[in-house]
């Protein structure tokens, strides 16, 4: 006999409904038209349910991004076996996104939410360490490139590369091809 | 005969008065008590004068930080001739600041303001390239360390190191001594 639905189970269902409603509304109407009221109506929850978990619309969007509900898969680092090629591909994808109005708004709202909310900030950094992340890809590349050995501080390398991306996104500077090469030189060595 | 005071001259005086009032009020009352109304009253300008140049209190604080009106000199990279020692000292200072309530709030409000305001974002990145900055110090160290040659992409190295600091500040993680060593290993090589 199935157990009766408990509080935490209902909460997780509501959380998922809120994130899905946010992702759907963003795709349909864009960032500026997105409101907590609109999300609540679409997810069929009260506004207070949203505010219980997130302080702002930016924080909900940040969680969608970190859970892959928005831009699913587009921020993963590919793995072709060639680390320099894969990071180059990842940087190209990220900066192509930053070149789109919607992508720029989303990624900057993630940074703003992380600045305002400690939990979002921690999750942003955690998202850099798993598989499919920059650190995960660097880890799997140990031994395949001259500068990547078991002694290489891969988490800090990933932090440096991702941090450079954040800083450049904040400056609204595009990453041109020579910049990309120099950034990879700086992080992976020449 | 002195020229009559022109518009731009009066504007610069007002701008300086606003930045000084912001720095003074922050020191006296702290971040939470700081309001645009309070800044306007102290600087003897109208609120609209402030909003003409800055969209939010965070943006005014960001400009104070970038002009050295807040924490003057504390964010400069020292120059003792030993680049690794100097960057280690700088990182220690920055993370000591992030360990203080006020410092953490200030530096995170700078990142939030940069996320929200393109001009602040550009100035944040520009602040990393001058003398006394990470890039400036790396540039003056070319030839003094095995991994710093005229071919080294110093601007990108500075971007990576500063970006790592921003990312770690967003995650509210302290930088312990072993992390600091690994981060410098990642950026300067071992």
TrEMBL record, chains A, B:
Residues annotated to bind DNA: 35-54
Record key words, sorted: DNA-binding, Transcription, Transcription regulation
Domain HTH tetR-type as annotated: residue spans: 12-72
Record carries keyword Acetylation: no
Alphabetized PROSITE patterns for the sequence: HTH_TETR_2
Keyword Transcription regulation among record annotations: yes
One Pfam family from the record: TetR_N
PANTHER family linked: HTH-TYPE TRANSCRIPTIONAL REGULATOR RUTR (PTHR30055), TETR-FAMILY TRANSCRIPTIONAL REGULATOR (PTHR30055:SF148)
This protein's name: TetR/AcrR family transcriptional regulator
């Amino acid at each position: 006999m199935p157990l009766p639905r408990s509080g935490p189970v209902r909460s997780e269902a509501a959380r998922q409904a809120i994130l899905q409603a946010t992702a759907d509304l963003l795709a349909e109407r864009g960032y500026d038209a997105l409101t907590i009221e609109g999300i609540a109506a679409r997810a069929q929850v009260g506004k207070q349910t949203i505010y219980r978990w997130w302080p702002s619309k930016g924080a909900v969007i940040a969680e969608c991004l970190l859970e892959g509900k928005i831009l699913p898969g587009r921020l993963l680092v590919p793995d072709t076996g060639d680390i320099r090629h894969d990071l180059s591909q990842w940087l190209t994808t990220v900066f192509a996104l930053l070149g789109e109005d919607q992508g720029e708004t989303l990624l900057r709202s993630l940074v703003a939410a992380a600045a305002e909310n400690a939990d979002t900030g921690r999750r942003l950094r955690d998202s850099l360490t798993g598989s499919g992340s920059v650190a995960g890809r660097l880890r799997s590349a140990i031994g395949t490139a001259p500068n990547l050995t078991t002694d290489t501080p891969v988490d800090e390398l990933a932090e440096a590369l991702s941090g450079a991306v954040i800083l450049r996104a904040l400056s609204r500077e595009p990453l041109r091809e020579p910049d990309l090469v120099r950034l990879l030189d700086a992080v992976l060595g020449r």
